Model the fold of this input.
Amino acid sequence: MVIKGKAHKFGNSINTDDIIAAKYLVSTDVQELGRHCLETVRPNFAASIKAGDIIVAGKNFGCGSSREHAPLAIKGCGIKAVIAESFAAIFFRNAVNLGLPFLELKNTDKIKNFDKLEIDLSTGIIKNITRNQTYQTQPFPEFLQKIIKAKGLINYVRKDT
Done:
């Protein structure tokens, strides 16, 4: 599975309150959540996204509370993957459950805001088309790729039974 999109850079410790503010937790509508994704950090973030874009962040992405709304909001605004130096464990689990691809990559500082990226989940190769650079990370495990293709764990389990 290959994902192509523009990088949107963030720093360290982007927490779930930053990803989707608590006042929006009354909704589970993915599109509504997407309209407010990361608005406390960048007010016009969701409006700047083109379907397929990629979040690139530093360490401890998705820290904070265990809300599933965070990866839902990310998916709802059109982001297709998240690359970070590290992820909070609860975000990692929620991203899998909801079918949001995520990759750990050391030295995300080599990727700049708006660089064009191409991610091959099966090989773990991330190409920075803008800078003509290639980065290697762990391939996304095949079973997780199947969950992503099914658009989440529940769909995957339903399909498999």
In short: The chain is about 30% helix and 20% strand. The chain has a mean pLDDT of 94. The radius of gyration is 15 Å. The helical segments are 16-19, 30-35, 45-48, 69-76, 89-98, 142-149, 153-160.
